[in-house]
UniProtKB/TrEMBL annotation:
Name of one Pfam family that matches: GCV_T_C
Domain Aminomethyltransferase C-terminal intervals: 537-618
Record-annotated DUF1989 domain positions: 30-197
InterPro entries: DUF1989, GcvT/YgfZ/DmdA, GcvT/YgfZ_C, GcvT_C, GCVT_N, TrmE/GcvT-like
Residue ranges constituting the GCVT N-terminal domain according to the UniProt record: 251-516
Name of the protein in its database record: DUF1989 domain-containing protein
Organism of provenance: Citricoccus parietis
SUPFAM superfamilies reported in the protein's UniProt record: Aminomethyltransferase beta-barrel domain, Folate-binding domain
């Protein structure tokens, strides 16, 4: 092996290894350039930790019983991709790795990195020889040495799961790689689905970026099956933030009894759709009767103190000073260039108390930063996401379902007095019932309400709503149906319809920027004035010809040249058409303009489309106002 000086200023320093998550049955360091073989019982958990960061660890697993019978049935990436429909298994519904007989060997329980490789083999002698490094230590030879005692035949190349190895396919379908994403202490945890024989390595590759040029150690821990671990991936709000594991909402006990179809959404597990219903049935229930959905992933921040109004007046594009107690307003949140950081609803609870409900954790951090920069030292931004979880009851029957369920004290508006974008504070049933906050808001384009409660009361709130809704045909609703509803209603979605490069006018929510009536300075005001005076693009609707849908990111053309991009798209059940939201050059944004959506490379296939007004459904928003 080539000698490489290990004092690397670009390399993250090795952290002190955190203590085990439970009492391990195996706890061993795998020195760089070596591998180990080991046995794992069905149900046990395998945790592979990148000690110093940016270090690949190849992993093999075999069905132990099959090995005793003389058959080598190992982890097979091709079979796994065929079954899970992804490049590799990740925590969630499609989280298992399979062998050649399509039997699961391991399920991925936790992954704090999210970028691995299941296409290339473990490094081998020929790889190094072809680069001019004969005799270089390699994972394949290390595996052969460790697996010999398990009667596994030696190979010249092992098709492994290459944990932390950063590979991808570029725009030319070329397989390329770069330094791993992993940081010190990042890990992958798997649970054995059979009795297994496993092998793990600390890859010795020091001639390319696959290990950040300097191989380091991997740590292996195996925990007994009696210790249960939650399924999770991680997110960082900022590059320096401590990673947060995906968690369940307070309503998970109830929703998980109705479906196993969950996906990770902004650090929570939320249902995509419900078993026995499906997205179409859930959609029609919301349009015609009523549906209940878990929206607890929305972030909540209490902005409190004498300077609270002044802070929000600067941070929000809407005129917060005009907000009355008990009123809610939808707003954009922009940076100094006019790009959207987030969107949010703001609740005014009193003269000095506000509740901001955005989509991202970063919004709270940014508000604190702005308060410091502007010398607003009498305002406190408190994260209450874990103290307030919420469900939405949406649809024409939502008022009838909740009317007899919600009790309000005399000093609060009664339920029937809660008009569009207003809220009240009450209880379930009577004055001794479960406390809730009820707002007439939603993300469906229908008449609807949101109910906020403490997580400890979530089951009681869900049960009460479910029981009251049964006579009205109440149906649970997941993210798939919600996407259809919100696109039809022209409601924008972060990361799709806007980001910090897109201003509210380009995102189709210019109504949130009252430049004529809000004279106060606010974040991005000067840039937004210039952008409004010189618009380049605006959000439009598209109706597609035929039955083939568009997809997020599809290019939109007039002739050879691109004039727009699809931001969100769906098949509209009520319109019986494929529709899309599109950010279009203003020269081609007039209703009736004919364009084409580019598929494949944008030139080899086109779908005719026509620019139409948005929202597609209920353009005057009569239903939510009703």
């Amino acid at each position: 092996m080539i000698e490489v000086q290990r004092a690397d200023p670009y390399r993250p320093r090795e952290i002190e290894l955190p203590p085990p998550l439970a009492e391990p049955v195996l706890d061993v360091r795998i020195d760089h350039s070596t591998a180990i073989g080991y046995e794992v019982k069905k149900g046990d958990y395998i945790q592979i930790i990148d000690v110093a960061g940016r270090q690949c660890s190849d992993f093999l697993a075999f069905d132990a019983r099959a090995l005793q019978e003389g058959r080598e049935l190992g982890l097979d990436a091709s079979t796994t991709r065929h079954i899970v429909g992804q490049a590799y298994a990740q925590p969630g519904l499609h989280g298992k790795f399979y062998n050649q007989d399509m039997d699961p060997l391991v399920s991925i329980v936790r992954d704090t990195v999210g970028r691995h490789d299941a296409f290339t083999p473990a490094c081998n002698a020929k790889y190094y020889e072809d680069f001019g490094y004969p005799g270089h230590v390699n994972c394949t030879d290390n595996f052969n040495g460790q697996l010999k005692r398990y009667s596994v035949a030696a190979r010249k190349s092992w098709p492994a799961l290459n944990l932390f190895y950063n590979t991808m396919f570029d725009e030319h379908n070329m397989l390329v790689f770069d330094e791993p994403w992993s940081r010190p202490g990042d890990y992958v945890m798997m649970q054995a689905q059979q009795d297994l024989v496993c092998a793990s390595s600390a890859c010795p590759d020091d001639i390319d970026p696959s290990n950040g040029w300097v191989p380091t150690d991997i740590h292996l821990r195996v925990y007994p099956s009696e210790r249960k671990f939650s399924m999770a991936i991680t997110h960082r709000t900022n590059p320096d933030s401590v990673p947060k594991l995906t968690r369940e909402t307070a309503f998970h006990e109830r929703t998980s009894a109705l479906t196993k179809q969950f996906t990770e959404y902004r650090n929570f597990w939320l249902p995509t759709h419900y078993d026995g219903y499906g997205p179409k049935a859930e959609y029609w229930a919301c349009r015609e009767k009523a549906a209940v959905m878990d929206l607890s992933t929305l972030r909540k921040f209490e902005v409190i103190g004498p300077d609270a109004e002044a802070l929000l007046q600067y941070c929000m594009t809407r005129n917060i000073r005009k907000l009355s107690e008990g009123q809610v307003v939808y707003t954009a949140i922009c940076n100094d260039t006019g790009g959207m950081i987030d969107d949010a609803t703001v609740f005014r609870c009193s003269d000095t108390n506000f509740r901001v409900i955005p989509g991202e954790d970063y919004t709270g951090e940014w508000m604190r930063q702005v308060a410091t920069e502007r010398g607003l030292d009498r305002v406190w931004i408190k994260d209450s996401t874990d103290q307030l979880h919420n469900i939405a009851v949406q649809g024409p029957a939502s008022r009838d379902i909740l009317r007899d369920l919600i009790w309000t004290p005399p000093h609060q508006p009664d339920f029937d007095s809660v008009t569009w974008f207003r809220f009240t504070i009450g209880r379930i049933g009577d004055h001794q019932g479960t406390p809730v906050i009820v707002s007439r808001t939603g993300y469906s384009g229908e008449l609807g309400y949101e109910l906020f409660c403490h997580p400890s009361h979530a089951n009681a709130v869900w049960d009460a709503v479910w029981e009251a809704g049964e006579p009205h045909g109440l149906t649970p609703l997941g993210l798939d149906a919600l996407d259809m509803l919100r696109i039809e209603s022209g409601l924008v979605f972060a990361g799709y319809d806007f980001n910090d490069q897109i201003d509210p006018f380009e995102a189709g929510i210019g109504f949130t920027v009252p430049l004529k009536t809000k004279e106060d300075d606010f974040s991005g005001r000067d840039s937004l004035l210039k952008r409004k005076e010189n618009p380049q693009r605006r959000m439009v609707g598209l109706e597609l010809a035929g039955n083939e849908p568009a997809g997020h990111g599809d290019t939109v053309h007039v002739g050879r040249f691109q004039v727009g991009v699809v931001t969100s798209a769906t098949r509209s059940p009520v319109l019986r058409k494929n529709i899309a939201l599109c950010r279009m050059m203003v020269e081609h944004a007039e209703v009736g303009a004919e364009v084409e959506i580019g598929k494949l490379d944008g030139q080899q296939k086109r779908i005719p489309a026509t620019v139409v007004a948005t929202p597609f459904y209920d353009p005057e928003k009569l239903k939510p106002r009703s």
